Amino acid sequence: MRSLAAAVSFLTRLPVGRLVSFDAADVARSAGWFPLVGLLVGAICAGAAFLLRGHLPVALLAVILIAMDALLTGALHFDGLADTADGFGGGKDRDDVLRIMRDHAIGSYGGTALVLLVGFKAAAYATLLGGDRWPAAVLLTPAVGRWSILLLTAALPYARKTASVVSEMSKGALVWGTLILAAAIAASRLWSAGAAAATAVMVSACFGLYCRRRIGGITGDTLGANVQLCECAALVAFLWTGGR
The pTM is what? Predict the structure, then answer.
């Protein structure tokens, strides 16, 4: 399963790349597996929550889950959110936005976005962990987030002129990724899981249109930002529906 291994290596810091080497083409072909990688991240976090819940306050456990997500993924999507916030917040035109996104330094917009993100997720996870239907939310939220990558890559062009892994991802990946996510949602037997996926579609549509207007398409940073936005929306869906 070379393509699955490539997806794991690209989206996480799990040491798969030490066993097999991958190039950009392998990563692009692996996009359909992204939701499954999200399920893997969710499963690791859910396992930790199962072991620690009851021994730690839910607020502290919520922060631990966010830290685990960052460690498992190398804070990949956190960085994308910060760069996107800085670019859209401080950029005057398309070229200026893209230039700012390339800057590795985090500005005031990016810093604020990260603080709000961590605070939002911590509050959401703490509330969910206080109930009895938290496993589905912890497991499926990362999968919904990674699925959103496929939604935008299938609908929008790559905004930069240079080649990228993002620009090489095929629209067919959305079909395979959707089947994986749909199977996970069906297995959960919770309509809140379907609601979480529906919110991701709405958020991706709105954010995608905004990206199209501002920079003419998507970049790796905007995809990472959308992952975080969709995860927040999914958590809201689980909270709103009571996890049913």
Answer: 0.96
